[in-house]
Amino acid sequence: MRSPREIARSRGVEGGFAGRTVAIAALAVVVIAVAAVVLLGGSGGYRLHLRMENASQLVKGNLVEVGGLSVGTVERITLADDNTADVVVKVTDKALTPLHAGTRAIVRAASVSGVANRYVALEPGPNNAPELTSGTTLPVSASTASTDLDAVLSTLDADTRERLQETIQGSEAALSRGGAAGMNASLRYLSPALTQLQGTLGEVTADRAALQRFIVASSGVVSAVAARRDDLARGLASAATTAGALASQRRALSAVLAKAPSSLTGAGRTLHALAGTLDELRPTVELAAPVAPRLSRALTAAAPALEGTAAVLPAVRDLLPPLRRALAGLPALRASAVPAFGAATDALRATAPIVSASRAAFPDILLGATNGFGGTSGGSYDANGEYARIGFVSSSAPLVGLFGNLVPPGVQNGVRYHNVARCPGGAGTVAADGSNVFDPGYACNAGDRP
């Protein structure tokens, strides 16, 4: 039988063993709870898969920010089937989730120095756009990878990098000599300029397909220009020579530019006066407008005649030399021709009364000269030609014996005597109306007719 001390000792051992058992059990419960939180609870939350052209030196644990505030972390980075980077980000800010269509992700650098100093800046889409469920994959077009400075510098050739170094060194020298104040003044306008530049670049990159086509087309243009680089170099050299020549004449150019304001002022007044002249001519033009169609038709009708004159022009050109010589002699002829024309005019003026008086007797003079001296000037004729009249011819003696008592006084053997007052025109054939027998202006006897 055990003593009381042994019994108490055994009970203390059992009590200590039971306490250790309870502590171990409690620790196991805690471990299981933590594992459940890590394994089960860790699978919860809102996640997005970002497809990027490169991981941009992101690492697990980098921050995810919206508007400069941390809203999550980078959870995992793997390689996708299309060889793009699959960056899984977990958004822990429940006020931000779920995100909407149009959300973009941009990898930015927290500072220039360092390697793993990147973070993901989210630009949430509009709230009226469709919601993005957890696990949605944003395409490459919705993500922008970070561009490292050394990647940009590696695209430059050695000569360009050397010039860039000289520019940076020159900027350092300019700032060290008191140019910092001017630089600070310039930086005040840098932010608006960068904002406008960002908006412009956003518009340019909005349509990536069009931008790609433009770049491809531009490469063809650049290739064509590069193929003619010798011609381009000569053109630039000629332009430099021209610029140098203009620079050498800067005084003359300055004088011209100094006179330009007054010249422009005079030109302005001239144009103003011209405007008034045009206003005055407008009614004339409006009146001439109806004539334009008729003039057009007249010119169209004259076109064949003008074509015909083409053959005549050479002949006219040949006549010009003798015509020029004849015209050259006219001034010398004028000295004698003008007095001769004056004398002829006076002579014609003096003969006017003679011509007027002899005009009525002209038929008698003509017929007397032609019939009396030269015989009959011509036979009878009509529309059918010449014709002859056949008549009875006899002497007047038998008629005197037979009809002597019928002969009027003053007529001897059929002949009338003492016709001394015959009117002008009586020698011609008397017209039916008697208009050519005599002129009332003459003192004559109308009965003294043939």
TrEMBL record:
Keyword Membrane part of the UniProt annotation: yes
Residues annotated as transmembrane: 21-42
Keywords: Membrane, Transmembrane, Transmembrane helix
Domain (Mce/MlaD): residue spans on this chain: 45-125
InterPro entries referenced in this protein's UniProt entry, alphabetically: Mce/MlaD (IPR003399), MlaD_Phospholipid_Transporter (IPR052336)
Keyword check for Hydrolase: no
Protein name: MlaD family protein
Organism (species): Paraconexibacter antarcticus
